[in-house]
Design brief:
The protein is of the alpha+beta class. Helix content is about 15%, strand content about 25%. This is MoaD/ThiS family protein. It comes from Streptomyces liangshanensis.
Length: about 100
């Protein structure tokens, strides 16, 4: 079973600069474990052991453009030909200023 995983710029140091990699697995958790066998360290950037091996709070994962948090999270079932996109959450902006 081949699954394409799109890698954000910040995690490409784990994939030797590759924007997309192939992986296998019946669930998202299995896929991340499989990726970690070839791209050591990537799983720990995505999964938080302190939170019961759930997705890290500031990592968004999409299965075929659908947010996995609204599916089964890390237990979401995968199929051959699926596309998984990993996106870091982005926050920021300037603090609001008040003038008197």
């Amino acid at each position: 079973m081949a699954i394409e995983v799109r890698i954000p710029t910040i995690l490409r140091t784990y994939t030797d600069g590759a924007k997309a990699v192939q992986g296998t697995g019946d669930t998202l958790s299995d896929l991340f474990a499989d990726l970690d066998t070839r791209h050591a360290g990537i799983r720990e950037r995505l999964v938080d052991p302190a939170a019961g091996n759930q997705l890290r709070r500031f990592v968004n994962v999409y299965l075929n453009d659908e947010d996995v948090r609204f599916l089964d999270g890390i237990s979401t079932t995968l199929s051959d030909g699926d596309s998984v996109t990993i996106l870091p959450a982005v926050a920021g902006g300037a603090p609001e200023t008040h003038t008197a």
